[in-house]
Batch of 2 targets.
Target 1
Amino acid sequence: MVQVTQSSKVVVLTGAGISAESGIKTFRASDGLWENHAIEDVATPYAWERDPELVWNFYQGRRNQLQDVEPNPAHRALVTLEKFLGENFLLVTQNVDDLHSKAGSKNLIHMHGELRILRCEECHETFDMMEQEHLTSEYVPCPSCHSQRLRPHIVWFHEMPLQMSEIYAAVEECDVFMTIGTSGHVYPAAGLIDVAKQAGAHCIGINLEPPMNYDQHDEFHQGKAGELLPDFVEQIIS
Ligand code: OAD
């Protein structure tokens, strides 16, 4: 098992699996549906154009769910790792929930956006809006330019993930790259491990099942993140 010192540079990529034990459904569950919807019906710009009410209510459901979920031991283990490494740690998540920040992670990039945040399509400002008045089926107008409705600050299919240049810069110079709870289906996230490998990083995976990019990992630990990660972090930093 790899040892991490305080000068090691570590990038961690998380996906839906890390929040599964907190009660949030993963994307690629066996029924192929996300909370009873086909992903293309709710997670594309075309869906928002065609049926904004359906998309709005779907995301309002996900936003409301945030009030009922708590971080699990896997989220907290990554806070321990960040406290040990300080600035040498970067957490990149594909998740749109707020469980990493709720647990206390600081150096964190939400590459697929955040449920907490709404964005104006006219003036492009973003707003953290989680008061009860922002969580109903009524559209929320833009407080800045007063356009009629904000959209979810979510990276939908066919849209560009966020902060990719910062992510690539960190992955290109990391010593250890970890993937946790991600199936390796969705690019560019699934390709970050290739960049890490090219940079000579040691690549570790923790997942319930072998992911699509299993072969790229130098070390793979199969099981639930909430059960494996706390001990794993203690071992690599001791
Ligand atoms: P997926 O739903 O594709 O994969 C979740 C992975 O987590 C699967 O490989 C599961 O086996 C694993 N898993 C489930 N429970 C686990 C547990 N308790 N511990 C560890 N692993 C567990 O989710 P992502 O890979 O995150 O994109 O999906 C990537 C992107 O596809 C999402 O960010 C989203 C989606 O479409 C956008 O919204 C743009």
Target 2
Amino acid sequence: MGQRSDRQLDHCTRSIASADNQMAQKILLTGGAGYIGSHTYVALIEAGFEVVILDNFSNSNPSVLIRLGQITRQNQVICYEGSVLDKALLAQIFTEHDISAVIHFAALKAVGESVEQPLAYFSTNITGLLCLFETIKTAGIKHLVFSSSATVYGEPEEVPISETAPLQFTNPYGFTKVASEQILTQAAAADPWAFGVLRYFNPAGAHPSGLIGEDPFDIPNNLMPYIAKVASGALPHLNVFGNDYDTRDGTGERDYIHVCDLAQGHVLSLQKLLSTHEGHVVNLGTGQAYSVLEMNAAYGEAVGRDLPYVIAPRRPGDVPTCLADVRKAKKVLGFETQFGLADMCQSSWNWIETQAPS
Ligand code: WQD
């Protein structure tokens, strides 16, 4: 056979790739256009899965789909716009696609907002899970990865926090996560389902391409996106919520995990379910905590200048330290984080600069 032109070779590569994809398992990502969902989309494609997104864009921007196509070099990113509460739409998705498993991100997740609007959180986070359950039961799906949170630990009695720590909630958002985990446990006892319950600590950072990242619609509740807006000049300074905690420097300490590490944790959880049908509940963190002032200083290093802050009163509901015991994720999933605080800050700033109007 003569030397193939680049185009032919490229076409050949694509056809082989598409042949592989025909054997690839297809995963439904609810909330897949969101911050963690979009990064998990990339990780799944890179792991050889096909992916379908369901998102109502209540906390994400449809433009992310174009950028996901750029990162994964796909001509088309399959996305259905709508809510997990829409059972007809869920049924349509499972009719039109041979879905092997689901990763369920779609939920409301702002602690303060949940105190003001508890019914909205019960509806989206709990009723939404039940609607999804009814659909996957009908479709015969047996595997689901669930997006949980360290919030289920409430104010921990000891740190690092292990998965055996008692579950408690201090706000409606935390209640919906504790309740959802209980629903999953009871359901798996009654039906041949296996669930991966992933308790995130504090996600931070962005994809190294700078094309996707945390893109809050309004003033951020969380620390790193708030610092990012200070660095970009959109906000005047950081308000440090209390400097009189029993911590290294008096400010709150958290276990920040790079969103790309978090995404990889979802791939490992899914592969574990599909290969062993063994359910699991694991923390996804780094086992290292940083204070508010340490985070602000690290971000300043990434930006190349000190970032202004003022000491403000404590935020109600905050705990002094939240830190993951990461041994079980390593043992059960072989999960180990690859990125550190500097990577989180640099990738976040790269995302901010990439999005800045030129
Ligand atoms: C981190 C630290 C604040 C903002 C929350 C949710 C949790 C999860 C992650 C969904 C704390 C301090 C923050 C600011 C500050 N989300 N801070 N000034 O509260 O640990 O966890 O997000 O699952 O459920 O509870 O994260 O980023 O809000 O705060 O001083 O403007 O930064 O006091 O010590 P948190 P956070």
